[in-house]
Structures
1.
Amino acid sequence: MAENTIGFVGLGIMGLPMAKNLLDAGYEVVGHNRSQEPVEDLADYGGHAAADATDAAERGDVVITCLPDSAVVDSVVREEIMPGLGEGMTLIDMSTISPTVTEDLAADLAAMGVDMLDAPISGGEQGAIDGTLSIMVGGEEAVLEAHRDLFEVMGETVTHTGPNGAGQTTKACNQIVVAAQMVGVSEALVFAEKAGADLEAVVEAISGGAAGCWTLDNRAPRMIRGNFEPGFFAGYQYKDLRIATDAGEAYGAPMPQTELAHELYKSMEQNGMERDDNSGVMQVIEMLAGTEARIDGE
């Protein structure tokens, strides 16, 4: 039986299954979310409902946040969670936010005697459900090792990437590559459709060669059937790419391909597709091409 009580703030599409996995592993979990339904779901599953984020922090030994963006993390941590933290506690932020915001929060928490790990995640909703996420951890390695058992409940790959902020930098790198895959596969499929090729055959053929990638294996079969049910919201991908391009500007790193991907995901946002899966960027390429890359009758 795990000894730590976890205060979990942010029970969304990723956070709720992660919190449930912690319950399955024997951790006591006290959860809070802006909307009440996920909190009730967690309580029905064996967890506890917190009155607010401060209550979750006060009742936890470790606090995990899984929130939408930099502004929300900054305000929730400073205004709601910090009042509930005590010296010797650890805050683990599993959101995807700006590295510089992370560094500032970590410094202020350290002044309180609180350790912080930035631990953004990759693997989508299914990875959160299965406990197979890739977790990129920034912060003191000794703090990570003290909580490794907790991380290994939620993720299959747990990697220490450097000091505070390095986890977020690594996640930005991840999203740069993911977006490139999504856009590249979308272009290839729309091109194949325009050229009259068999879409299923194209996916099968190129998946086994040098073009093989996660998107071809896990999303292309759904894309050609028009299935864009979210595993990871396109709106979140848009937000993550803005983090990446802003960081690229701050550090002087050229990002021509990522800037283009960002504009395509912006188009999804403006066309009401932000709640589609991030593979739904193919719909923007289809609109540009005036066609749909679909298998007939499916």
2.
Amino acid sequence: MSRLADVLLSTEPTQRARLAQVGPALLLLGAGLVGMAYFAAVGIARVEAVLWWGAITVLGLAAIYALVRSGWSSRLREPAMVTAQLVWAVACAALAYALLGPARGAVLPVVMVILMFGMFGASVPRMRWVCVYTVAAFAVAIVTSALRRPAVYAPAVEFGHFLLLATMVPAVAVLAARLARLRQRARHQRSELTQTLARMREQTTRDELTGLINRRHMAELMDQEHQRCIRSGQSFCLAMLDIDRFKPVNEAHGYAVGDAVLRAVADEAQRQVRVCDTLARWGGEEFVLMLSDTRAALARGGIERLQQRVAALRILHGGVALGVSISGGLSEHHAGETVAQTLERAERALGDAKALGSGKVVVAP
């Protein structure tokens, strides 16, 4: 059954959704064929006429299905061809009305069902056009039948049928407009909810000042990297970075300048790290850099280049131009140790680097 569905509906999601919209038309067609066969069996409708009606109806819907299934309809403004389905179904219903004689009243609720299906697939302007077309098509069927067979299609009864259609069909157009407004409101609400959730995720995973990943989310990512390395047998490095002499900057120039320094260093560091690496603000003026699939020797070269780029910065804020440097402690993860142990070795290495002066890097043993 699954393979048959793939053949009939395609495996491409968009195309499958379009073909699924042909389903209601096929269900109505099946019900219509059964009904017409019944009326032919009891002698209300001529068998030959019903056979012709069935052939014409099936061929029309088969042609629409083929155009959608082949992808040809994708060049149209309405790739699912919902309006075409509605037009064809209404035309077949009007023809059935002319064929069924005494049983023609059974067609009227079917027409309303056809239009109700259209409410969920066609746009409001198209539904208005389809409703006008429906009234016109049945007006032709009613007038023609009343002129050809007045004994069966009594003009007074046919006028009543036309008044019923002319009253009910416009109501469908009104309902379609209301449904469209509800769908648009629901889409807008979903969009707002998605944006709100995205902002909430951003706030819970990002540092507000620098825009970098925050400490809590970084801890989760380091644990994930640790598990990945256990499975793959590869290694990773952690670097603890610290802005040199940051407290004197705050004391001499104020916290606004200190915040500008943090943002500038974070922006420059983020530009320099590899796409596969992760930089986070750990707290205060400290940052943690996780370097994936890297040994300490290569990681040290990357951190030294990062130090050079940061040292070249000139941070302007309120007429003040400042130059800063960063120190780093680097540790390569050892098999069997925890992330906390690797990070602890990086912290000790950072302390050793700070003891040597500004802009130094120490690799933990």
3.
Amino acid sequence: MPKLRVHNFAVSVDGYAAGPHQSIDNPLGENGTRLHEWVFETRTGREMIGAEGGDEGLDDRFVAAGFERIGATIMGRNMFGPVRGPWGDTDWSGWWGDNPPFHHPVFVLTHHPRPSLAMKGGTTFHFVDDPIEAVLGQAFDAARGQDVRLGGGVATVQQYLRAGLVDDLHLAIVPVLLGRGERLFEHLDGGPSGYERVELVSSPLVAHVRFAPA
């Protein structure tokens, strides 16, 4: 049965998944890029940016797993871009250039729907203002039997955790302290209930922890 999966969701030791003051220059907030430096030490991460080389060990296997058997993605508007409120005449098409790395349908949660945006490589962004359960149904239909990946940001993952809809939650705990920003486990009444740890492994750069419904 297809699953809703969260992959390589990086958090600091003090629980932050993004730094403060997110902007075009700092899409992950101040010091937020420190949470993802480990990704680009891997072979898969380097391939994503058109570079060669990279480690092929534990971290690479987790990064690569985030693309396996994924037929659609759900993300929040903040992950798609920095534009707030009505879109107006903006031509913003995401952080990823003309050929985003998804290569499948992507559903962007927003209170301001706009026409779908088809990009090179098979990625089409759909901008939807529906309940999260309905969006998940649309994503499963679009995935055609494959799994759906749940991207960021923090608020989007929190919504699906509160609803108990996440089937596989992979956190990458990075040994840095951000001190402020957006915490993943805020606004969850003490944390997501009904989940248990199913895997815990570590490389020199990051600890990987996976949770699944108990």
